[in-house]
Amino acid sequence: AVTIKSDNFKKFKNAEESSFCIGTSGRITYQKDPSYFDKIVKNFSSKHNVTFKWIGDYAYNYTENRLDNKIVVTGWKSHQDVINEVSKLDIFIMTSLWEGMPLSLIEAQKIGIPCVVRNTVGNRDVVTNGETGFICSDIESFILKLQKLYLDENLRSKMSKKAKKIANKRFDVNRLNADLTNIYENNLNTNN
Prior knowledge:
With 192 residues, the chain is an alpha/beta fold. It has seven helices and six strands. Strands 3-2-1-4-5-6 form a six-stranded parallel β-sheet, sandwiched between helices.
């Protein structure tokens, strides 16, 4: 369960503004596939004036696949600072090879950030393709979907509202606690 303060909201910029920002959050590790992220940045930034940001830092002793210097790497942040940084993004992307319960993705959706994610377990369990973001199976589709969101402020706004609505309902702490309590109570009643 992810708790996000209700004052975190998304205010959209149009694509011509130089402060347009696309990013992700989490530790920079093999599992997050930073080389895939790099390929997206190199391809997309050659065509559009955007800032790419990785909110987080390299995992301890991680030396492979260092990120391109075009990418702003924020370093370690407190959880609230991460939420503040994510809320400034226009599009959230996740390039992970796999996820379990992708908390940073859930947080982005709860804030109302449209997401473009790699078609992997965990990611596709959070994003509703075409409604709260896009699920992509290759670099080319990543670029196309990013461009679509970048150029269409109305689509970003529509996906933002839908993402926030669905994520706040699906990942509500009270609802999850009630569901878990019901599972335990039903299991105890069955075993007695």
